[in-house]
Amino acid sequence: MRLFAVILGLSLLCAAALAEPVPEDLAALIAAAGTAEDHEDADAVVVLDRTTVEVEDSGLAHINNRRVTKVLTEDGALDLAFQRFDYDPATQLIEVKKVIVHRAGGEQEVVDLAGLVDVIAPAWAIYWGACMLGLDLPRLEVGDAVEIATYRK
Question: Which residues contact 87 (CB under 8 A, 6 or more apart)?
């Protein structure tokens, strides 16, 4: 009977570990990230960075990423104003699922993904066909946060 209880307990633990994650309270996470005074010499702080990877039997990986970054300074707002997504078109696919600006006052602004531009990535010393998607964001202020969800394979 004790063995049955141990096996049942381990099964439930494994099932809980494989379950979908509980949605985050982004407003609370963004607020808890603090201000520039809490992060010396930082222009922005990553509030959340979650990546899930599913691998097919063939080895093909499906990668979903969700990243939330909070603006701490004016320089951070400038740095985050343009989002760049690098990829190799010969071996990768990238899809930007959503971009949301969480304003310091609590409002959310969904960014129109029609503004995504696919261009050749600037090269320095290695020249292959790398590309990038670029997206201009609305004006960011100190205290705003940028949420980006992407899919790659």
Answer: 93, 94, 130, 131, 132, 133, 152
Q: Are 130 and 87 in contact (CB under 8 A)?
A: yes
- On whether the CB atoms of residues 152 and 65 are closer than 8 A, the answer is yes
Reduced to 3 states (helix: H, G, I; strand: E, B; else coil), residue 31 is: helix
Evaluate whether 16 touches 22 at the Cβ level (below 8 Å): no
Confidence (pTM): 0.80
Q: What is the distance, to the nearest Å, from the Cα of residue 112 to the centroid of all Cα atoms in its chain? A: 17
Cα atoms in the 13 Å half-sphere on the side-chain side of 14: 6
* pLDDT band (50, 70, 90) for residue 14: low
Sign of the dihedral defined by the CA atoms of residues 14, 47, 68, 25, in that order: positive
